[in-house]
């Protein structure tokens, strides 16, 4: 008990020594932050749901009963179900290699992992069209063998993987680097195999970071617009994901249906935010050694 009081007292001393601004300045900074979030986050989100239900619950539900909307939802879920596990495998392998080993080309690999963050999604989608389109580099050969990548599911999956593969790796690399290799080396010294060491030592230590990376990867996969818009060809009912379907409905002035589908994506964002907060809380409890309740 005395230790807890001492720690809290020390924290209070550090707070007073660091924060020198007046109460007015602190309140003003907080007010600006809240106003900014309200204007650019809360209000647009509220408008989405208000417009979606503007003509009643019946019109809202009818938007999801259209075959094109159902096809867009199924395609979005299918693309995420394919791309997220593949990025999970890649992220684990890349993070393990970079954090646990030293090898030539390590810096280049880290640079390539960050490439999707610096390249426009539209450009990445265009690259796949130039590679696999009918007039692309491999297009004629693919057409001769009856293989369709551009303007089909494989192209959408490839574009989604490209824009989302940094998330898992970038979440795990600093975590693994901070943990070091001492625990794995101890397990190997005691006779554990490499696979057993990974399952019983490495994976439990990174589980919350891994789930956090997968969560962000899934949210981006479902909400990706630019790359998918280029490579999909906008074939209604076949290659349109939910973001593309929202665009089509809005351009057709079908605002209720457009905002209804958009509200589904907004709900995904809210669920992602809640899950993100939960994972950060659990990860913080794990690192501090406290129980997660």
User: How many helix segments?
Assistant: 15
Largest sheet: none
Overall pLDDT level: 85
What distance separates the N and C termini? 20 Å
Helix/strand structural class: mainly alpha
The topology string of helices and strands comes to: HHHHHHHHHHHHHHH
Q: What is the strand content?
A: under 5%
- Give the overall shape, derived from the CA principal axes: globular
Sequence stretches where pLDDT stays below 50 over 5 or more residues: 287-293
DSSP helix fraction: over 70%
Number of E-state strands: 0
Q: Using the CA coordinates, give the radius of gyration.
A: 24 Å
Report what the structure shows.
- The chain is mainly alpha-helical.
- The protein is 80% helix and 0% strand.
- It has 15 helices and no strands.
- The longest helix has 34 residues, at 67-100.
- It is globular and about 65 Å long.
- 28% of the residues are buried.
- Mean pLDDT is 85; it is low at 287-293.
């Amino acid at each position: 008990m005395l230790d807890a009081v001492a720690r809290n007292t020390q924290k209070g001393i550090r707070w007073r020594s660091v924060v020198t601004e007046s109460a007015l300045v602190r309140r003003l900074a907080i007010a600006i932050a809240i106003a900014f979030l309200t204007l650019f986050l809360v209000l647009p989100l509220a408008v989405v749901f208000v417009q979606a239900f503007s003509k009643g619950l019946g019109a809202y539900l009818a938007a999801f009963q259209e075959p094109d909307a159902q096809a867009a939802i199924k395609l979005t879920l299918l693309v995420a179900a394919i791309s997220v596990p593949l990025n999970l495998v890649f992220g684990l392998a890349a993070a393990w290699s970079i954090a646990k080993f030293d090898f030539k080309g390590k810096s280049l690999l880290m640079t390539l992992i960050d490439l999707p963050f610096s390249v426009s999604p539209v450009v990445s989608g265009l690259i796949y069209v130039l590679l696999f389109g009918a007039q692309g580099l491999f297009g004629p050969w693919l057409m001769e063998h009856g293989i369709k990548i551009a303007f089909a599911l494989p192209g959408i999956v490839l574009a989604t993987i490209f824009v989302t593969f940094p998330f898992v790796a970038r979440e795990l690399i600093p975590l693994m680097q901070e943990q070091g290799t001492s625990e794995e080396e101890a397990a190997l010294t005691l006779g554990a195999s490499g696979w057993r060491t990974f399952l019983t030592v490495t994976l439990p230590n990174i589980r919350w970071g891994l789930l956090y990376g997968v969560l962000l990867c899934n949210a981006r996969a479902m909400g990706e617009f630019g790359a998918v818009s280029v490579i999909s060809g906008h074939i209604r009912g076949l290659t349109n994901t939910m973001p593309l379907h929202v665009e089509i409905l809005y351009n057709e002035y079908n605002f209720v249906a457009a905002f209804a589908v958009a509200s589904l994506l907004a709900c995904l964002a809210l669920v992602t935010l809640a899950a993100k907060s939960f994972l950060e809380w659990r990860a913080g409890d794990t690192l501090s050694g406290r129980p997660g309740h």
